[in-house]
From TrEMBL, chain A:
Record bears the keyword Oxidoreductase: yes
Record SUPFAM superfamilies: FAD/NAD(P)-binding domain
Protein name: NADPH-dependent 2,4-dienoyl-CoA reductase/sulfur reductase-like enzyme
Lineage: Bacteria, Bacillati, Bacillota, Clostridia, Lachnospirales
Entry keywords, A to Z: Oxidoreductase
From TrEMBL, chain B:
A Pfam family reported for this protein in Swiss-Prot or TrEMBL: DUF1667
Native organism: Catenibacillus scindens
UniProt-listed InterPro entries: CPE0013-like_sf, DUF1667
PANTHER family to which the protein is assigned, alphabetical: DUF1667 DOMAIN-CONTAINING PROTEIN (PTHR39450:SF1), MOLYBDOPTERIN OXIDOREDUCTASE, 4FE-4S CLUSTER-BINDING SUBUNIT (PTHR39450)
Cross-referenced SUPFAM superfamilies: CPE0013-like, Formate dehydrogenase/DMSO reductase, domains 1-3
Protein's name in the database: CxxC motif-containing protein
UniProtKB/TrEMBL annotation, chain C:
Pfam family name, one: DAO
Transmembrane segments: none
Enzyme Commission number(s) of this protein: 1.1.5.3
Keyword hit for Oxidoreductase: yes
Enzyme class: oxidoreductase
GO molecular function terms listed in the Swiss-Prot or TrEMBL record: glycerol-3-phosphate dehydrogenase (quinone) activity
Domain FAD dependent oxidoreductase as annotated: residue spans: 3-351
Protein name: Glycerol-3-phosphate dehydrogenase
Entries under CDD domains matching the protein: GlpA-like_Fer2_BFD-like (cd19946)
Keywords: Oxidoreductase
Cross-referenced InterPro entries: BFD-like_2Fe2S-bd_dom, BFD-like_2Fe2S-bd_dom_sf, FAD-dep_OxRdtase, FAD/NAD-bd_sf, G3P_Oxidase/Oxidoreductase
Organism of this sequence: Catenibacillus scindens
Domain BFD-like [2Fe-2S]-binding: 397-450
Length: 426, 119, 480
């Protein structure tokens, strides 16, 4: 059985950044396992621009953003295996991987970084009634067909869901000569970035119908049309608002789900809100030496935040391995834990607890809100004491938010049990 | 007098901004709630620009297509012209990130370059 | 001139074809769809019924019990998934017990072994997720679950290996009589045959009525289902039925042989025999109804829903016989539940009738066994590793939800009666059957079909002509 200090599962933006940071933290033996035929993950099919404003202070396309990290991995001579699927991970960190070249292999890891990303919610998850013809694609599948295979999935398109991938595909399909008839969004607001609504829909006169959903799919062999309807505040279609739209394609951009089947297999505790692992300030899961970052941990809106988070995971995994080499991982594990809670509009926080003695001088806590809030404040409470209020002009479910905790501040409260983040209206 | 309604993309607030023009000259910008909104609206009304991204066919490479973009912003009304200019364009592998795929796309003076390496 | 032409390559047509291939004859199967198992056989409860439902003395009762008894050996001979997980008919009030008693007595008369009525306490030990309302159940240890796709595919493939010809994409338009038999006119030309077998599912009445004045009438009875993620596949371990009604056996909750949870069906008589669409009302109904059987049904785990059409004949009985006024024309009509269970026995029965009619001799070269496509994810590590060493394509995982390799997909394509479409691959090896519902693997499976069949990407379909997946190359669309 081969052994590596750190094995990273997934060679997308999270895996790449984690690998680089682990190496920068002094770990020589790092291995990336990637199931696709190249590194870069989903960025390879995100050929649009808008990536990297935070990280590189310039606007890159997905492949360019990935390319910078891939180049670094190559320069650092970090080992990676492509076309390799991880089938199983055991509690004692033995990875079973499958590939054409090496067959079934077992790899022992000192620490593991989970960076498998996420998958798209399929039609079935929404239980949309109707036929099951060809022509129904998740937006990401369509994106792969168009951007990587060079094929067009349809001519006349309806898109359900105004998540960013759906918006991006509306523009992409339009530029390739397809007619995007409408984007329907179940919620009364879009989950996508404003910039994408303007530049992907408004620029091309594509209507966005909020509080609308697809209630029927017509066509036995290939999609012939869909029926959309307005939904009421109860989330149910409003009778009399049905509208039949002929089309040959339905794209679904209805949410992403962190891909945690492997994590569940190890026994990692999963948050029912994020569908990602429950982690501490070091991004370590409930299983010793198993870390998580990127979209497998929680779905991000900007890849820059993925890279940042993964950098942290790589660094912490390296610290774990170093402690392991000195035989004192127990020290790595101990310590007083302060739990982090989201309340009053804050749906979740990552991490969910913080151990002051293990944290760096500052810790970025990421979270999402459950609704659109205008002129509200993000308030941080240590116990019952409000220690910070940050006024925000707008908070939206589609945009990840964060607060920064200071170690020095937490240390002033030796009996602190809970830190709560709340949204409060002025 | 001409009125243009825009959505500001500066932040998630997405202010509905109204620009009033007279003979092509901006008379007023209203509805924005910050300076960025004003700047955005003025540029968007007078000379809106975009980066265009697309793909072109690769011959003999490890992938059937390679992703490309306009190296810089091009005028918004040239988007379709730029994409059409890529019709029928194919390149031979290897293609490297940054390689010029098409010079002076649709007369914009901007080159279209590869955004990925395909060997 | 064929000795026999079978109309329909569903489970019944395929079972008859396989049984016929035990004789020396020249037979073919015509199927309007692009593959076997495209109609009722692909969208049903996937249950091997014990046999207590049908009235004693009916063909339904007889063939159900016979088919059930055959299934285990057949699953070994032909290598498809079958599990005797046992079934329960639950009741929620005292009055229900008398119905259970009736079912039990009927079952015993039909020859169903091991029937037992259990009280709540006994049930909870077996099925802790039953709803609080359940007070008792009829327990049938011989009830089972099966993979309907691979049952049908295995039967057809084995028939093909033993010499039966399959003509796909061939729709029968009319049937005429000749001195020596029948002319079966299809959209692909005319077929001459001494005998005709009508195994056309919901369309069996159409073909019967072409040769007989004694009309039959088949109604398509729609059943909608929800399939749940493997995460909750062990929510129940037995097949949980509700008390039967005039429209069928009620909504059941069952594990599938592949480890998912299946909830359904509804029952609604419809006009359009192609209307395999699900409806809001139907899906809502069955989700509500299933709650009577199990508590806290994890409905958020639904990964897909689908609908199938039962071929319900007015007489409420299988019609399996030679049509009196049309000698040599054999009906296998009105095959609704327990049709899947009965199929192997129907095969024996119909083949026997034809053999007698034509005086057929046994086929000395008949091979009665078949190895299925290896399912690597279910194998022990060493076995799997050895197979990958033999054929590295088994190491290239294409469908990550179901862990299906390129090698398995290539097998699905290259076997006799191989897959030609995404659905064909899916039914054979489950690529695309998992929780992401083919989002990830479909472009990759398309590539393999494109390379191996071969088919151009533009010709590739989801489920046959008309269901093409892509419409053109990028940069070549009109309107660009």
């Amino acid at each position: 059985m081969k052994a590596y200090d750190i094995v990273i599962v997934g060679g997308g933006p999270a895996g790449l950044a984690a690998a680089i940071s682990a190496r920068e933290s002094g770990i020589e033996s790092v291995l990336i396992l990637e199931r696709d035929k190249e590194l870069g993950g989903i960025l390879n099919q995100c050929i649009h621009n808008g990536f990297g404003l935070h990280t590189f202070k310039e606007e890159l396309t997905g492949p360019e953003y990935a390319g910078r990290f891939i180049q670094k991995v190559l320069d650092m001579e970090i080992e990676y295996k492509l076309n390799t699927m991880v089938a199983d991970i055991s509690k004692d960190r033995v990875i079973t991987a499958i590939s054409r070249e090496e067959g079934l292999t077992r790899i022992k890891a000192g620490a593991i970084v989970l960076a498998m990303g996420c998958r798209e919610r399929p039609r079935g998850a929404l239980n949309i009634p109707g036929y099951r013809p060809a022509g129904i694609f998740s937006a990401g599948t369509a994106q792969r067909l168009v951007n990587m295979e060079g094929y067009m999935p349809g001519r006349e398109v309806v898109i359900l869901g105004s998540g960013d991938i759906g918006l991006i595909m509306a523009r992409r399909m339009t530029l390739e000569g397809a007619k995007v008839k409408v984007v329907a969004e179940l919620m009364p607001y879009s989950g996508g970035l404003k910039r994408n609504i303007v530049q992907c829909l408004d620029d091309f006169g594509i209507p966005l119908k909020l509080s609308h959903t697809v209630i029927d799919i017509d066509g036995k062999d290939r999609v012939k049309g869909v029926t959309i309807a307005q939904v009421g505040s109860d989330g149910k279609p409003v009778a009399g608002t049905e509208e039949y739209i002929s089309c040959d394609t339905l794209l679904l951009s209805v949410g992403l789900i962190p891909e945690n089947e492997l994590s569940r297999g190890i026994g990692v505790q999963i948050s029912p809100v994020t569908n990602g692992p429950v982690v501490n300030e070091s991004l370590e899961t409930s299983i010793d030496g198993v870390f998580a970052c990127g979209n497998v941990l929680h779905v991000h809106d900007l890849v820059d935040y993925v890279s940042e988070e993964a950098h942290m995971a790589g660094k912490c995994a390296a610290a774990y391995v170093q402690a392991q080499k000195l035989g004192n991982t127990e020290e790595f594990q101990g310590g007083r834990a302060v739990s982090l809670k989201g309340e009053n509009g804050v749906r979740y926080t990552v991490p969910v607890f913080v151990r002051p003695e293990h944290m760096e001088d500052t810790l970025t806590v990421r979270f999402r809100v459950g609704n659109v809030y205008k002129n509200a404040s993000v308030c941080t409470y240590f116990g019952d004491t409000c220690i910070s209020r940050r006024k925000k002009r707008v908070l939206a479910p589609g945009e990840m938010e964060n607060i920064v905790l200071k170690k020095a501040e937490i240390e002033k409260y030796p009996d602190l049990e809970t830190i709560t983040i709340r949204i409060e209206q002025e | 007098m001409e009125k243009r309604e825009l959505t500001c993309i500066g932040c998630p607030l997405g202010c509905a901004v109204t620009v009033v023009l007279e003979n092509g000259e901006i008379k007023s910008v209203t509805g924005n709630t910050c300076k960025r909104g004003d700047d955005y609206a003025r540029k968007e009304v007078t000379h809106p620009t975009r980066i265009v991204t697309s793909t072109v066919t690769v011959e003999g490479g490890s992938a059937p297509v390679v992703s490309v973009k306009t190296k810089e912003d091009i005028p918004k009304d040239k988007i379709f012209d730029c994409v059409r200019a890529l019709r029928g364009v194919s390149v031979k592998a290897p293609v490297h990130m940054g390689d010029v795929i098409l010079e002076n796309a649709a007369g914009t003076g901007v080159d279209i370059i590869a955004t990925k390496t395909v060997l | 001139m064929y000795d026999a032409v079978i109309i329909g390559a569903g489970v019944v047509g395929s079972a008859i074809a396989r049984e016929l291939s035990k004789y020396r004859l020249n037979a073919c199967v015509v199927e309007k769809e692009e593959d076997v198992c495209c109609g009722t056989s692909k969208a049903n409860s996937a249950i091997v019924h014990a046999g207590f439902d049908a009235e004693s003395g009916t063909l339904k009762a007889k063939l159900n019990v016979e088919g059930n008894a055959m299934m285990e050996q057949l699953s070994k001979d032909l290598d498809f998934s079958f599990k005797r997980n046992g079934s329960m008919v639950i009741c929620t009030d005292e009055a229900g017990f008398s119905v259970l008693e009736t079912l039990k007595a009927r079952g015993e008369k039909n020859g169903v072994p091991g029937l037992e009525i259990l009280n709540r306490e006994q049930l909870m030990a077996l099925e802790p997720n039953l709803s609080d309302a359940v007070i008792g159940a009829l327990y049938a240890p011989t009830g089972g679950i099966v993979c309907p796709f691979n049952l049908t595919i295995a039967l057809a493939e084995n028939a093909a290996v033993n010499g039966v010809e399959f003509k796909f994409g061939t729709e029968v338009e009319s049937i005429g009589r000749t001195d020596s038999g029948y002319t079966v006119t299809t959209d692909q030309g005319t077929i001459y045959a001494k005998t005709v077998v009508n195994a056309a599912g919901v369309y069996a009445d159409k073909f019967h009525n072409m040769v007989s004045k004694d009309k039959i009438h088949i109604t398509a009875r729609k059943g909608e289902y929800c399939l749940l993620d493997k995460n909750v596949g062990n929510y129940v371990s037995h097949t949980i039925f509700q008390l039967p009604s005039a429209m069928g056996k009620g909504v059941l909750v069952t594990p599938t042989v592949h480890g998912n949870l299946l909830v359904g069906p509804t029952a609604a008589d419809i006009e359009d025999k192609e209307a395999t669409n699900t409806t809001r009302e139907g899906l809502d109904f069955l989700i509500e109804k299933a709650k009577e059987s199990v508590k806290d049904l994890p409905i958020r785990q639904v990964i897909t829903s689908f609908a199938g059409l039962r071929a319900h004949e007015d007489g409420d009985e299988f019609i399996i016989k030679e049509v009196e006024e049309a000698p040599g024309f054999f009906d296998a009509a009105g095959i609704e539940s327990p049709g899947l269970t009965s199929a192997p026995a129907i095969g024996v029965m119909v083949a026997g009738m034809i053999a007698q009619k034509l005086g057929l001799e046994a086929n000395p070269n008949f091979v009665g066994t078949r190895r299925g496509i290896p399912h690597l994810d279910a194998m022990k590590q060493e076995e799997r590793a050895a197979l990958i060493r033999q054929n590295p394509a088994y190491g290239n995982i294409i469908c990550r939800c179901e862990m299906v390799s390129e090698g398995e997909i290539m097998d699905a394509i290259h076997r006799p009666l191989g897959a030609r479409s995404l659905d064909g691959v899916k039914r054979r090896v489950r690529a695309g059957m998992g929780r992401c519902q083919a989002g990830f693997c479909s472009p990759r499976t398309m590539e393999i079909l494109h390379r191996e069949v071969p088919l151009s990407m533009l010709e590739l379909t989801k489920s046959g002509p008309g269901s093409e997946i892509v419409v053109g190359r990028s940069k070549e669309m009109e309107g660009m």
